């Protein structure tokens, strides 16, 4: 029996939740395992399709099959979200321009700054929610090659008009990349809106249990997919089989986790809006990330350290609720308020989450 995952055509048009559960399974044969095995191999017998562990792995293939089906394209797994992101940036030619959000994952901003400092490219950071400004920045740079979009942005939670921006970018010959980590393919499918490449930090919602570092890219064009895979093979930005298997197992429950976390986030955001110690609540209307801004003079760090259920941590997207003052990181944009706390709402009981958060916010009440 082959260790390769099956790629069956579903007899009916199934929905994303069903794809997440049924995709990437081995062929249905007597005594076959229900789940794909973890293939721990660096070396393969010659004359096949893989040849060497840096070029492929059946466990990767199973993960890529499911994510590709959810996003509507061809997926590639990477060692981390940053490995995936920097592989995309490697496709930008010397001296070309990149338009990106002024508020975005700090790792992305740092990667752009590093490449700019070394003369590899020049970056234009814009308000991604201002569609006219984004299009204007692309038009102003005759060497613009890439538009990088986050929607919602991290941590400001701004939304981009992906479809309009993708259309305008393509008219200018600019490739479009969308980081879909916050939304996940269950809430947003950028390829269907015109994006060329989708980026995921699979460490977050896809894996969902704060025990994996993994990244992924999804594309609709076979030639672009081949170029990205060639780059992955060359630099060795490949994931471990065990991490990929864990991420695949995590995706089986993505729809359930996201449904619960989103319901909790909606409730938490609504209650925070009425709290006297909070001057602003940012929530895009979907997903499980909420940002709040405290009134001047109140310590966001103190609030983050005062919770008992909410964990003070920098990552997000796990089953547990986490929170963090983003400006504690030097790379965070200066336009992010000092008093902004980013909340990653988990799947705990919402009343327990609110009681804990309300207790930590209590010193802010006059």
Automatic annotation (TrEMBL):
Q: PROSITE patterns in the record, alphabetically? A: CYS_MET_METAB_PP
List modified residues, type N6-(pyridoxal phosphate)lysine. 204
Entry GO terms, CC: cytoplasm
Top-level enzyme category: lyase
Its keywords, alphabetically, are: Pyridoxal phosphate, Transferase
Q: Which GO terms describe its molecular function?
A: cystathionine gamma-lyase activity; cystathionine gamma-synthase activity; homocysteine desulfhydrase activity; methionine gamma-lyase activity; pyridoxal phosphate binding
Catalytically driven reaction(s): L-methionine + H2O = methanethiol + 2-oxobutanoate + NH4(+); L-homocysteine + H2O = 2-oxobutanoate + hydrogen sulfide + NH4(+) + H(+)
A GO BP annotation: transsulfuration
Q: Which InterPro entries match?
A: Cys/Met-Metab_PyrdxlP-dep_enz, Cys_met_metab_PP, PyrdxlP-dep_Trfase, PyrdxlP-dep_Trfase_major, PyrdxlP-dep_Trfase_small
Could you tell me which Pfam families the record lists for this protein? Cys_Met_Meta_PP
User: What does the record give as EC number?
Assistant: 4.4.1.2
Which cofactors are named for this entry? pyridoxal 5'-phosphate
Query: PANTHER family annotated for this entry?
Result: CYSTATHIONINE GAMMA-LYASE (PTHR11808:SF15), TRANS-SULFURATION ENZYME FAMILY MEMBER (PTHR11808)
What's the family?
A: Belongs to the trans-sulfuration enzymes family.
Stated name of the protein = homocysteine desulfhydrase
- Organism source for this protein? Nocardioides thalensis
